[in-house]
Write a structure and sequence with these properties.
mainly alpha, 4 helices, about 0% strand, 2 domains, Helix Hairpins
Length: about 200
């Protein structure tokens, strides 16, 4: 029986991989810049410029709005102050007009009183000055009376000082009289303050 010889194995080789196509670059192999690359570069530069200008515009607008708000607040505060001043001026004007009317009334009253004081021959009649000047109410009359008595006490103290200076009275007499007058003056002033408080007048 014939034994077959083993067949020699045939070595198989794997084919080499196919190389990938080369990537395109902005510059061709000849060193020339392609038009589409120039266009992309210009668009990118324009986009950056527009973004920068837009940021500047937004920042400027924000600063202007802040300044406008501050100016508006100042104007509103000034407007409120002007309104208060106008109201105060109107109030003072009304008060001044009332004073003018009162002055005119008193002037007419004084003119009538002066006319009544003269007779047909133009001579003045004898008239008590205390009856010509009178207060509007009993409370105001009491204030006027105490005020006049307070001033009279000042005159008395001054006269006593002059008398002491001229040696017309002794020191003991001066002190005794000044003490009595000062006591009365204190009562007049205290009464006048109470009356002014009751009448709503400043003390």
């Amino acid at each position: 029986m014939n034994t077959p010889y083993p067949q020699p194995s045939v070595a198989t080789r794997t084919p080499p991989p196919i190389p990938a196509p080369p990537k395109t670059t902005s510059i061709s192999s000849t060193g020339t810049v392609q038009p589409e690359h120039i266009r992309a570069s210009i668009l990118s530069a324009l986009e950056d410029e527009l973004k920068m200008r837009l940021r500047e515009k937004i920042g400027t607008s924000h600063a202007e709005m802040t300044s406008i708000r501050e100016t508006q607040s100042e104007l509103q505060a000034g407007q409120r102050n002007l309104r208060r001043m106008i109201e105060e001026l109107e109030k003072q004007q009304k008060q001044l007009e009332s004073y003018i009317f009162a002055h005119q009334d008193k002037k007419e009253e004084l003119s009538r009183t002066l006319a009544e004081c003269g007779d047909d021959n133009g001579e003045s009649k004898t008239m008590d000055i205390d009856s010509a000047i009178d207060a509007a109410t009993p409370l105001h009359r009491q204030i006027l009376t105490n005020y006049s008595q307070d001033l009279a006490c000042d005159d008395v103290i001054y006269a006593l000082g002059q008398a002491l200076k001229e040696k017309k009275i002794s020191v003991q007499e001066y002190l005794r009289c000044v003490r009595d007058v000062s006591r009365k003056q204190f009562i007049f002033r205290a009464t006048m303050q109470k009356c002014r408080k009751a009448a709503g007048l400043p003390i």
